[in-house]
Design brief:
Elements (H helix, E strand, L loop, with lengths): L9 H6 L8 H10 L1 H18 L19 H11 L1
Length: 83
């Protein structure tokens, strides 16, 4: 799990394994068993970003979080554009 923002609320940070790629099994375990808690904590985090004015690199306020198990986007699109 990675985030463009370094402002992750502690409950969300504690819930998800930031800094690790999720395997399909782990991803579906979160979806099957933690979904209500994930939704609540992600909503709280988005509210925090909105209230605090946390912005993307282009100046827009963050409006969504994405959780997925396919790391193709991360390694083929996101990482190369950063380095």
């Amino acid at each position: 799990m990675w985030s463009d923002h370094y402002f992750i609320t502690k409950p969300l940070f504690d819930l998800l394994p930031f800094g690790q790629t999720l395997s399909p099994v782990t991803f579906y375990q979160y979806i099957d068993y933690q979904l209500p808690n994930l939704v609540e904590q992600a909503s709280n985090n988005l509210l925090y970003w909105n209230i605090s004015g946390t912005q993307h690199f282009n100046g827009e306020v963050a409006t969504q979080l994405t959780l997925f198990f396919d790391d193709t986007f991360l390694w083929h699109y996101y990482v190369p554009t950063r380095y």
